Amino acid sequence: MAFDSDAPLDQLWKEYGLVFRDFDDLTLGRWLAQTLGQLEGKSWRLSHPLVGAYRLAAQFGHDRQIWHKRLATPPAAYTESACCRAPLLPLLTRDVRESGLICQHCSETLVLFDELPGEVSVALTDWAAEYEPVHAVAHWDDRQRKSAGNYDRAYEQAAQQAERLLARAGKELALKLLEHYPAVIWEDQDECLEVRPEDVRP
Ligand SMILES: [Zn+2]
């Protein structure tokens, strides 16, 4: 999610983000560096307002090449990412097996799945393998829906399983990742199954 779709919520986030457009480069760089200090050492829900604000500012920072200009120094724990040279801030999503961990600055892959530390990658493989068929229920075609009999019930069951799996991501997996990265963000919603952040309780 890069706030770049025409969906009403993404449009609203774009509007929120305008506040950062008026920051000059130095102010924006300092705001980002200081906020990284506040994010450090914890795992965060994607829906957390501070994370939302950081992601908006980070996009402007990326567009304006803030980190290349070295106007502000991020806390030392954040090493430079290979994708865009911004401080390393990963997002865990349900697509981790295909997309790896996602950079919060350029929205590209920050850490390939194959490059994840061993025990973390085992735990994430198990989790993602459980999540994939659950998520797929939202995308069943007509034939699959018919063969399920009561699709509404199958969808509701899948949504409840997704809530539990997302809760596990926040409770266990994000903490495992935190042993290797300065801060971690985890996706706490599934828009296809209509699971909202408030439904996910680690
Ligand atoms: Zn990047």
Account of the 3D structure:
By secondary structure, this protein is α/β, with parallel strands linked by helices. The protein has 8 helices and 5 strands; from the N terminus they run ααβααβαββαααβ. Helix 2 packs antiparallel against helix 3. The structure holds zinc ion (ZN). Zinc ion binds next to loops. The site of zinc ion has 9 residues, from loops.
Concise overview:
By secondary structure, the protein is of the alpha/beta class. It is 52% helix and 7% strand. It is built from eight helices and five strands; from the N terminus they run H-H-E-H-H-E-H-E-E-H-H-H-E.
- Count the DSSP helices: 8
Gross geometry: globular
Tally the beta strands.
5
- Residues in helices, as a percent range: 40-55%
Strand residue percentage:
5-15%
Look at the helices and sheets and give the structural class: alpha/beta
Alpha-carbon distance between the termini? 22 Å
Calculate Rg over CA atoms.
18 Å
Secondary-structure element sequence?
HHEHHEHEEHHHE
What summary fits the major beta sheet?
Answer: 5 strands, mixed
Instruction: Output mean pLDDT.
Output: 95
Small molecules bound in the structure, each named once: zinc ion
Contiguous low-pLDDT stretches (5 residues minimum) are none
Instruction: Output the strand order for the largest sheet.
Output: 1-5-2-3-4
